[in-house]
Design goal:
Layout lengths: L1 E4 L14 H9 L3 E5 L10 H6 L3 E3 L2 H7 L2 E3 L17 E4 L7 H10 L2 E4 L13 H18 L21 E5 L3 H12 L3 E6 L2 H10 L4 E5 L2 H8 L4 E4 L25 E4 L20 E4 L2 E4 L9 H22 L1 H7 L1 H4 L2 E4 L2 E2 L2 H6 L13
């Protein structure tokens, strides 16, 4: 199969869909890799590293889309890419369709086959979301600590305090991968941390694995409202696979927070879990509303592309191999986890939550696999 790896063109996105190591594995399986010139440059990967393992270097993005049967990316296609996508072409990337009706309609019109990293589900887990969730969770604390500094409008508190001075209070909403990593980082810096979740079994697990300065709490509206009054940094990580994130902090709650509190919305790719969040970019990452700093960058891991690209390839490569070796129909028929990644197939919406988000006709993916 001809597999294309275009250069990401989303603003401030520096990751690339495959490392040379991943490309070599595919080439040794008999596939032809077409990598756009400069695609890996911002991740610290030179074109000659791809050439050394047998990749073809394409001069521009149009050539990649024209030549490839399958496109392996990181982020959703940008509007400039919509006309380049061919009917029947397989796209394997993060889509987060529920947060964008424009993207959803564009992919329906393209006639392509869209498999979303974020909805591939195996044994109740999201294996292609985990590595980026780990990165985003750790970055959430790192970025939150920075924007708590007074020059950025923050409260002016050091997360871990110093001798004789109280540390900051951090609330993490969601005990999944991102939330756990955010809490672990904040605890490591010495903050007082509360982590909220609605799953009692998960709270018991967190109780046993987290350090003493992390307190797991059952999540409900009352607890969130009580905790936000004393929290200097609030990190939201709650999302529903393939659907819009629930709004857990509403606009009127901002008035109850301390001025200079920082909100980091890790769920912004799925619409955000704070009502007042607006998508931002790395070059303008924050918005200040009613004295509260909102950090809602939609591609947080893109700021650390060397780490993120390697972690992503490690997770996606086995699925890319299945799709390229067998074709998408056979691969999805044999692998139910991969089948759950199907969102749009040749103009048909086959992921229920996406159809419901925009009141579109929903068709069972299984009906298209025979």
């Amino acid at each position: 199969m001809k597999i294309g790896v275009p250069k990401e063109i989303k603003p401030q996105e520096a990751r690339v869909g495959l490392t040379p190591a991943g490309a070599l594995t595919l080439i040794r399986s008999g596939h032809h890799l077409i990598v756009q010139k400069g695609a890996g440059e911002l991740s610290g990967i030179a074109d000659n590293e791809y050439v050394a393992v047998g990749c073809e270097i394409a001069s521009d993005i149009k050539s990649v889309y024209t030549l490839a049967e399958m496109i392996v990316k990181v982020k959703e296609p940008m509007p400039q890419e919509y006309p380049l996508i061919q009917p029947g072409q397989l796209l394997f990337t993060y889509f987060h369709f529920a947060s964008s009706e424009t993207l959803t309609q564009a992919m329906i019109q393209s006639g392509s086959v869209c498999i979303a990293y974020e909805t591939v589900e195996e044994n109740g887990k999201l294996p292609l979301l985990i590595p980026m969730s780990e990165v985003a969770g750790r970055m959430a604390t790192q970025e939150g600590a920075k924007y708590l500094e007074k020059p950025f409008g923050g409260f002016g508190i050091l997360l871990g305090g110093v001798t004789g001075v109280q540390p900051a209070n951090v609330m993490v909403i969601g005990g999944g991968v991102s939330g756990t990593e955010a809490a672990r980082m904040a605890a490591g810096l010495g903050a007082n941390v509360t982590i909220l979740d609605t799953n009692l079994n998960r709270l018991r697990e967190l109780e046993s694995i987290m350090p003493a300065n992390v307190t797991p709490l059952y999540s409900n509206s009352y607890t969130i409202e009580q905790e936000l009054k004393r929290s200097h940094l609030i990190i939201g990580t709650v999302l529903i696979p393939g659907s819009k994130a629930p709004k857990l902090i509403r606009k009127e709650m901002l008035a109850k927070m301390m001025p200079g509190t920082v909100l980091v919305d890790v769920a912004i790719d799925q619409g955000g879990c704070f009502e007042t969040s607006e998508p931002t970019t790395h070059d303008a990452p924050i918005k200040i509303k009613e004295g509260i700093i909102h950090y809602a960058v939609t591609n947080m891991p893109g700021a650390v592309p060397n780490t993120s690209t390697t972690a992503l390839t490690n997770a996606t490569l086995s699925y890319v191999l299945q799709l390229s070796n067998k074709g998408w129909k056979k691969a999805c028929s044999e692998n139910k986890a991969l089948a759950k990644g199907l969102n749009i197939v040749e103009g048909k919406v086959v992921y229920k939550e996406v159809a419901e988000a925009f009141e579109l006709e929903y068709i069972e993916a299984s009906s298209l696999l025979n």
